[in-house]
Amino acid sequence: MSIYREFARRFLEEALLDLGRAERALGEGDLPLAVFMAQQAVEKAVRAMLEVHRVWVRNHGAELANESARVLAGELGPDELDFVVESLGLLTEWYTRSRYPTLVGGRVYGPRDLITGDVARDAVGRARRVTDIARRVLARHGID
Description:
Shape: globular
Low-confidence stretches: none
Number of strands: 2
Number of helices: 6
Oligomer: single chain
Helix content: over 70%
């Protein structure tokens, strides 16, 4: 197995573990942790799909989203591609808010002030769908 394929397999393995952590945190009511782990699951699932195509992106955020859109355009249908790229963007924004106090409208808020049940459920749902997409992509390339 090439090193890229091994990275793809390992990234997906870690994404699935993070998804499980996100689901447990959601079930326990730790909404900020659920969002953080969902973001980690999405990012690692996307990196798994990029590794299949021998693409490594060091940074998060816009660079990862742009490379994903470029590389995965030939791999995913337009609805799936839009969902993956949109999920990266949304969860990258919530990543910081789920971990650190932040300034909003002149007031300082902690993660528990900002992360609602709706936000956490959406984040975990996105992580489930993106990891499912990544599983299918890797399976098409012979990686279990």
